[in-house]
Write a structure and sequence with these properties.
The protein is an alpha/beta fold. The chain is built from 22 helices and 16 strands. An eight-stranded mixed beta sheet has the order 7-6-8-5-9-10-11-12, sandwiched between helices. A hairpin with a 2-residue loop joins strand 15 and strand 16. Helix 2 (57-77) crosses helix 10 and helix 15 packs parallel to helix 20 (570-587). The longest helix is centred in the middle third of the chain and has 28 residues, at 366-393. The chain is globular and about 75 Å long. It starts with 30 loop residues before the first strand and ends with a helix.
């Protein structure tokens, strides 16, 4: 999702003379920002190809000056109290500092970011390779001898990595290694050709995020990738030396209900990107009034809704409950192996799938990258709902599953989110929740999120709107339909507990106005992600509405066809909480959503990480709290 900014009115205090004061003192107070889209929106006109811009040192320097001036203007003009936004601004300035050889400024900003960072692993990892790069450049400039420079860089980086507490940073090191292994000039060129060139060809400009990406690509190609082999060798050496397995706290906390426990069936809704009904055939909800004949047999507005309902990317009613693959069906087994390979690489697992993926990507030409990335996006949509559903019902023989598919477009140029689309999306939310209510669903999991920037990005990619300002205005209206429709739908279903994923952007969901994770409703609980040891993941979003944290790292569950795969994300943490809610309802079906939230939170453990504390779900304690009252 691309970020964008909107121009706010500047408030300048007038100079007012007072008795006894000689002269006139002019000053300006900073404008306080409470939402991300209150910041100005910047665009950068561009003629020609984006790739030519990335390849030109002269053009990059010109763009860098403009971007620096705008970022600095925002920092000088606005009071920005959101750490994530500030860290993003400082990171972009660090890239520019490095490009301009202002190493002291880059090092200072690294420390500024570390002061804002609450997650210990991210604090320790911030600027790790950049500091080694600066030290090596000062001692052995690459212009003098590239071989000596790379050797010196490796020595500085190895020393820095060795000084880190391995138990804290091991996941971050492994993930960084996995991401770097996939990086290559061809991959970057493919991303530029497939994802940026079409947008620029239509609009003739870069938005702020794209401009920062262009600067980052130039830096990656010319500064980071020449050191790729050295960096990977240092990371691999540290992984081989330590081989520390973090303790897994979740097995000791888990609860499985006995099938002969005499508990009550609980209908649960998996509102996701599509679910393979064959994997869960024995526990599926069945609409006995409907017949699978290609018509709306029961007259409820949905065709063939035997086990649930579905909506297409156009936010229109559809039939398949599993994400349709279209002409990618024959490729999907291979793409699913690639998806597993990516997961394994990020966990530093040298699996056959990881090896095959690295070999496959290394042989791709830039023109083939976009198709590869689109297929990966489709595979993610295809697997996601089934994986989530498996987590929701695990260890609960009393769980029953109703499927509700929503659809996300995996194409580079997606379905445009127009005003009419926004109205349909709002209706989709209302109708889906009404369907849940009608059939007695008690818990709904929502491992997805939306933001205004999604609508704005789709308009930009489709070349809709005469200017960035026009797209912003239309996107605001589209998002208002989405936000209000979803909020009212959840609010008007007080008998259902909705469980939502916080998001994976390491951002404050309230400041960024993400939905539904920014909603504050008594029948909604928002979930952040921790790892197997209960430490916050580097990706988990946060904020005042995020109430509890659960396991979201390398969590195993089903994918379509019945095979099992490990995935990471708050998408995996959320159904773990939904799972607990389902078990609590099986034990005591009289519980209201508010009471469910209370039992989940009371049973959770208070844990501290950095300056913050959070609640870590504990299924055993929550179940004991409930049963002790009976």
């Amino acid at each position: 999702m691309e970020k964008s900014f909107r121009l706010s009115l500047l408030i300048v205090l007038l100079c007012i003379p007072f008795v006894g004061v000689s002269g006139c003192s002019k000053h300006r107070e900073k404008i306080k920002i409470t939402r991300l889209n209150e910041l100005p929106q910047y665009t950068y006109p561009i003629s020609g190809k984006v790739q030519d811009l990335v390849d030109s040192r002269e053009k990059i320097e010109e763009l860098a000056k403009k971007v620096r001036a705008n970022i600095q203007s925002d920092l000088d003009t606005y009071e920005i109290n959101d750490p994530t936004t500030l860290k993003g601004m400082y990171s972009n300035l660090i890239t520019i500092d490095m490009l301009e050889g202002k190493y002291n400024d880059a090092l200072r900003r690294i420390e500024d970011i570390r002061k804002l960072e609450d997650k210990e692993a991210k604090k320790l990892m911030t600027g790790l390779t950049l500091k080694a790069m600066v030290s090596a450049r000062r001692q052995a400039p690459p212009a003098d001898c590239q071989k000596t420079y790379k050797k010196t860089y490796g020595e500085f980086l190895e020393k820095a990595v060795a000084a880190l507490p391995w138990k804290v940073v091991q996941d971050s090191i492994q993930q960084s290694k996995g991401r770097l292994e996939l990086m290559s000039p061809n991959l970057i060129q493919g991303i530029i050709q497939g994802q940026m060139e079409p947008i620029v060809a239509q609009n003739g400009e870069l938005n702020a995020d794209m401009a920062n990406s262009v600067l980052g690509f130039h830096f990656l190609i010319n500064y980071r990738l020449p050191l790729k082999d050295v960096t990977l060798a240092v990371y691999q050496k540290a992984i081989d030396k330590n081989k520390v397995v973090k303790p897994d706290i979740w097995a000791a906390r888990s609860v499985s209900l006995s099938a002969d426990g005499g508990f009550s069936p609980v209908l649960m809704g998996v509102w996701d990107s599509g679910t393979d009904e064959n994997v869960f055939s024995e526990i599926l909800f069945t609409n006995k009034a409907e017949t699978a004949d290609g018509t709306d047999s029961d007259g409820n507005g949905f065709v063939d809704d035997i086990h649930g309902i579905a909506y297409s990317v156009q936010a229109e009613k559809a039939v398949p409950l599993l994400c349709p693959l279209g002409d990618a069906a024959d490729r999907m087994p291979t793409v699913m192996d690639h998806l597993k390979g990516i997961m394994d690489m990020q966990a530093a697992i040298d699996s056959p799938e990881a090896g095959a993926l690295k070999s496959y990507i290394s042989g791709l030409e830039p023109a083939e990258i976009e198709g590869f990335l689109e297929d990966l996006g489709l595979a993610g949509n295809y697997a996601h709902g089934t994986h989530v559903a498996g987590l929701m019902v695990d260890g609960n023989p009393f769980a029953r599953l109703l499927i509700a598919r929503l659809s996300y477009d995996h194409h580079t140029i997606p379905v445009p989110r127009t005003i009419e689309w926004g109205k349909r999306d709002a209706a989709k939310c209302r109708d889906t929740v009404e369907y849940f209510k009608k059939h007695g669903v008690r818990v709904v999991n929502m491992s997805w999120g939306e933001a205004q920037k999604d609508a704005e990005s789709s308009l930009e990619k489709n070349g809709i709107g005469d200017s960035a300002e026009a797209r912003r205005e239309m996107a605001d209206k589209v998002f208002a339909f989405q936000k209000n429709g979803l909020y009212e739908a959840i609010k008007n279903a007080p008998e259902i507990l909705f469980v939502a994923a916080a998001g994976n952007a390491d951002n404050n969901v309230e400041f960024d106005d993400d939905i539904p994770s920014s909603f504050d409703l008594p029948n909604l609980i928002v979930v952040g992600a921790v790892d197997q040891a209960g430490d916050p993941t580097s990706f988990t979003s946060f904020g005042p509405t995020v109430q509890v944290y659960a396991n979201g790292f390398e969590v195993e569950s089903y994918v379509p066809g019945g095979e099992r795969m490990k995935m990471s994300g708050t998408s995996m943490a959320s159904p773990n909480v939904a799972n607990l809610a389902g078990k609590l309802l099986a034990v005591d079906p009289s519980l209201s959503p508010e009471e469910l939230v209370e039992v989940i939170k009371k049973g959770a453990d208070r844990k501290t990480a950095g300056k913050n504390s959070f609640l870590l779900m504990n299924p055993q304690k929550s179940i004991k709290l409930l049963t002790s009252k009976q």
